[in-house]
């Protein structure tokens, strides 16, 4: 297993980065927030996990080993694959995902595209005891971030379209977040917009 990569960022996409390691450019799938935190030409270190399929080898990258561990853990649930696991980490930070599972917060989990009520119930049923055993406190509900982030709205809109929403849906979500006081960081702005789309 490739546990981590460190090298110069050659390219930053909406949901991936290309990192040069030993003269080889590795495409690493990430959350939009992680990709937004990378800068072309600068060195980056990502915790990674390699997903092997019959037709493909896909490297997934995370800004912390905690996020990687959660990505791997949620895939032990029937019906949850890498794509859905990445969607969970795109909508909520790792700690909020764990708190939602520990507290049985179905509302938070169903804000993730692709997770319905039954899927959320299955995730809670299969992982709640394991998460609680790690000492995670149940969530009391996430509080949206606030602040001004007009300069990042175009980047967030493009990221939402890249995740599969229409341009109109993305524009509406960005506008709603901006009206209620948008976060200044791209990652927080994106999470707030994803929460809006999950309502």
From TrEMBL:
Listed A to Z, the keywords are: Cytoplasm, DNA damage, DNA recombination, DNA repair, DNA-binding
**Summary of subunit composition and partner proteins:** Homotetramer. Forms an RuvA(8)-RuvB(12)-Holliday junction (HJ) complex. HJ DNA is sandwiched between 2 RuvA tetramers; dsDNA enters through RuvA and exits via RuvB. An RuvB hexamer assembles on each DNA strand where it exits the tetramer. Each RuvB hexamer is contacted by two RuvA subunits (via domain III) on 2 adjacent RuvB subunits; this complex drives branch migration. In the full resolvosome a probable DNA-RuvA(4)-RuvB(12)-RuvC(2) complex forms which resolves the HJ.
Q: Does the keyword DNA damage apply?
A: yes
Q: Which family does it belong to?
A: Belongs to the RuvA family.
Q: Which gene encodes it?
A: ruvA
Role: The RuvA-RuvB-RuvC complex processes Holliday junction (HJ) DNA during genetic recombination and DNA repair, while the RuvA-RuvB complex plays an important role in the rescue of blocked DNA replication forks via replication fork reversal (RFR). RuvA specifically binds to HJ cruciform DNA, conferring on it an open structure. The RuvB hexamer acts as an ATP-dependent pump, pulling dsDNA into and through the RuvAB complex. HJ branch migration allows RuvC to scan DNA until it finds its consensus sequence, where it cleaves and resolves the cruciform DNA.
Q: Which SMART domains match?
A: HhH1
Query: Which InterPro entries would you find in this protein's record?
Result: DNA_helicase_Holl-junc_RuvA_I, Hlx-hairpin-Hlx_DNA-bd_motif, NA-bd_OB-fold, RuvA, RuvA_2-like, RuvA_C, RuvA_C_sf
Organism encoding this protein: Ornithinimicrobium cryptoxanthini
* Residue span, Helix-hairpin-helix DNA-binding motif class domain: 72-91, 107-126
Q: Main localisation, per the record? A: cytoplasm
Which residue ranges are recorded for the region named Domain III? 149-199
- Protein's name in the database: Holliday junction branch migration complex subunit RuvA
Superkingdom, natural source: Bacteria
- Tell what the record comments on domains: Has three domains with a flexible linker between the domains II and III and assumes an 'L' shape. Domain III is highly mobile and contacts RuvB.
Quote the subcellular location field of this record. Answer: Cytoplasm
């Amino acid at each position: 297993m490739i546990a981590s990569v460190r090298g110069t960022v050659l390219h930053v996409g909406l949901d991936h980065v290309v990192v040069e390691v030993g003269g080889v450019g590795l495409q690493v799938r990430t959350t939009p927030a992680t990709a937004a935190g990378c800068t072309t030409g600068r060195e980056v270190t990502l915790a990674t996990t390699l997903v092997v399929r019959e037709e493909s080898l896909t490297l997934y990258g995370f800004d912390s080993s905690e996020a990687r561990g959660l990505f791997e853990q949620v895939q032990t649930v029937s019906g949850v694959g890498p794509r859905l696991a990445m969607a969970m980490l795109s909508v909520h930070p790792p700690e909020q995902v764990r708190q939602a599972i520990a507290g049985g917060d179905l509302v938070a989990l169903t804000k993730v595209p692709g997770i319905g009520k039954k899927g959320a119930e299955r995730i809670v049923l299969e992982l709640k005891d394991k998460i609680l055993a790690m000492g995670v406190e149940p969530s009391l509900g996430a509080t949206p971030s606030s602040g001004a982030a007009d300069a990042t709205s175009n980047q967030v809109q493009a990221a939402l379209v890249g995740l599969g929403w229409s341009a109109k849906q993305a524009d509406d979500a960005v506008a709603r977040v901006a009206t209620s006081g948008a976060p200044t960081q791209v990652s927080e702005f994106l999470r707030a917009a994803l929460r809006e789309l999950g309502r």
